[in-house]
Design a protein that fits this description.
The chain has three domains: 122 residues, no CATH class; 128 residues, 5'-nuclease (Rossmann fold, 3-Layer(aba) Sandwich); 68 residues, Beta Barrel (OB fold (Dihydrolipoamide Acetyltransferase, E2P)). It has eleven helices and ten strands. By secondary structure, it is α/β, with parallel strands linked by helices. Helix 1 packs antiparallel against helix 2, helix 3 runs antiparallel to helix 4 and helix 7 packs across helix 8. A five-stranded parallel β-sheet has the order 3-2-1-4-5, sandwiched between helices. Strands 6-7-8-10-9 form a five-stranded mixed barrel.
Length: 340
Amino acid sequence: MDRTLLLFRVLFLTCCGAAGWYLAQTEHLWHAEPWLGAFLGLALGLMVILADLLLKGVSLRAFSSATFGFLLGLILAWLIKASGLFEYAADDVQWIIHLSIFLIFGYLGMMLALRSNRDEFCLIIPYVRFMRREPHEYNTLLDTSSIIDGRISDLCKSGFLEDTLVVPHFVLDELQALADCPDATKRARGRHGLDILNQLRDAPEAELKVHETPESEDPVDTRLINLARVLDARIATTDYNLARIAELQRVRVLNINQLANSLRPPLITGDRLRLKLVREGKDADQAVGFLPDGAMVVVNQARRLIGQEVDVVVSGNIQTSAGRMLFAELQGFPAKGGGR
C-alpha cells in the first residue's frame, strides 16, 4: 500500500514538473525559463501532497460535511454583500470588507458543519433525511485481545453482533508475532487468535474484512483509535486501558468483559455457591469471601473456617456505593434474623 501511494505521488510530481516546463515555453501564457516553470510546477505538486498528508485522518464524510458548511457560509456572505450594507464605503475598503466577510462566514459554516451530526442537517434541508445504514454498514474494529478472547465469535453466531468486523493488518502482524513467539504460552495464544479469525471468516453470520494500513511507528493502541476515527467505527476489546483511552477520545467501545458482567444473572436468596473465605467480617463470628466479579460475600458463623472453601446459601443482598454486597449462611446452618 505504501509503495503504491509513493508511486502515485512520484508520478503526480513528474506530471506537475512537466506541465510547468511546457507552460514556461508557451508565449501566450508567460515568458520564463523552462527550468523555472518546472520548479514552480514541482513546488505546486509538493504543496498538494502536503495537503494530502495533513488530511490523512479526515474521512470522506467529514470532508463532505465541511464542504457543505463552507458553501452555506459563502451563500450567507453573498447575501450580506448583496444587501448593499457597505456600498457607501470606499472601493478599496469594500474589497477588504467583502473578503473578510467571505472568509469569516466560510470558516464558521465549515466548523459548524463538522460539529453537527447528520440529524441536525434536517433543520437546514427540511423533508430530506439521510438514509439509515444497514447493520452490516457499521464497522467494529477487533483488537488482539478481543480476537484471542474468542467470545466475539459466539456473539456473531448468536446474532447479537451484526456489524462488519474489521481486522487491521497491524493486528494480524501482532497475532503472527505471538504465534511465532518462542514462549509456549504466547505461541498458544497467538495460534488460538488465528483459529478464531478463521472461524469468523467461514461463519455465514459474520462479515470479516482485513484493512490495509500504512506503516507507522505509533503504538498499536494509538493506531487502532485513529483508524476507528477514520472509519467511524467502534472498537471491540477486553483491554480495560484501551477502552478507557478510547472513551476519553470519544471513540465508541464494545467492552466484551463489561458485556459479560451485564448479562451475568444476579444471585438471589436461596442460591447456593462455593466460596473461599479470606478474612474476618465486621461483626462477631463473620467471615468474608469474594466472587469472581469482585462482589463481597459476608458469611455468618464462619470465622473459624477462614482460609477454607465452603458451601454457602445466599440469604440477602444490598447495593452500596462501593458495589454489591451479599449475605450468606453456611449450608446446613439456619439463617440469623433478617439475612444478616
